[in-house]
Amino acid sequence: MRILVISDSHRDIGAVEKAVLAQPEAKDIFFLGDLTADIENLKDTFPDRTIHAVCGNCDFFSDYPTCDIANIGGRKILYTHGHNLCVKYTTSILLDKAKEEGCDIALYGHTHISSILYEDGVYMVNPGSCAQARGGRNSYAVIDITPSGIMPIIVEL
Fold it and tell me: Which of 77-86, 129-138, 143-152 comes out lowest in average pLDDT?
């Protein structure tokens, strides 16, 4: 099973659509905020996909939560934008929250810098920004969840 992880599109709906079209086997899409309006457009365009979304620090008046948990392929996934967990400075708060919730994977954005870390049994994945990357190219993440393990990768747009 493959999931797609996108963050920080900041009104570049074309970048979001490009990532979704590049991963047709990913039936679950995680959008990690900034701007949730961008993901709303996908619900009509890709009705066969399940959208999991949280709001970010630029999502004023959003009805999405700032953090949520999903169960996909027998794995528990915490997903958040990360601004309220200080991810620009440390991933330790995110890790503690994921472990407290019994999660295998913690997804976060906000930094616009892609990253994959594995610590204390938790994969922490930041897909970077699909539209406004800092220090690199625009990107998203895909995570394959199989009976033999979890394989996250960063894909440049």
Answer: 129-138
